[in-house]
Amino acid sequence: MYIPEQFTEENFERITGLIKSNPFGMLITMQDNSPFVSHLPFLFDSCFGTHGKLIAHMAKENPQWHSLISSESVLVVFNGAHGYISPTWYSNSGVPTWNYAVVHLHGNPTLIEDSAELEDILVKLTDEFESKNQNSWKLNLSEEKKEKKEKLLKMIVGFEIKIHKIEGKFKLSQNRSPQDQQNVINELGKSAQCGDIELSKFMESYFAADSQKPHGM
């Protein structure tokens, strides 16, 4: 990914926050000399190793899981807030652009074949996303009949990806003046376009955190 220096994001807390707020990622592998992409929900374990690991599963009918056996490294992309930026929002000259935040994670995939570990993945994923639901639902495969449980587990493939490289690009008007940055935040906040208010809040939080850093950081 092309990342100009001013848009490089290396703050692990910010990167972790983007992934956990936008867990529906794109798993990209090579298959028959062509890119293959699956859109999947992921859990990010930021405490594992140096860069963390991703946990997920896919339908067994999805042929991409075969690539996880032969691939030494795969790419997972997480997109955060994004939106169009008009040059009319600047106090001086400029050109149209697009602001966005994105994280690329490169890692080594491993299939999860043990049924107990696979069940654990399903429970963790369900618990994570049901925690956002007022009427929380619990997955309890232990209450299912053995035959049904085995059938369900055979329909999916679990895997984990141990991350060895993280690329963060937060393009949020850092190359513009503080006044222009505030203008962009204000205009996005008034927009009716889908996602613009989210981007406005994201930029506001980003620059507020930067302004609290001690001088010289």
Describe the structure.
The chain has helices at residues 12-21, 65-70, 115-130, 146-154, 178-190, 196-211; strands at residues 8-9, 24-31, 34-41, 43-45, 53-59, 74-85, 97-112, 156-171. Strands 1, 2, 3, 4, 5, 6, 7 and 8 form an eight-stranded antiparallel sheet that branches. A hairpin with a 7-residue loop joins strand 4 and strand 5. 26% of the residues are buried. The chain has a single domain, classed as Pnp Oxidase, Chain A (Roll), CATH 2.30.110. It has six helices and eight strands. The protein is elongated and about 65 Å long. It is of the alpha+beta class and 217 residues long. The protein starts with 7 loop residues before the first strand and ends in a 6-residue tail after the last helix.
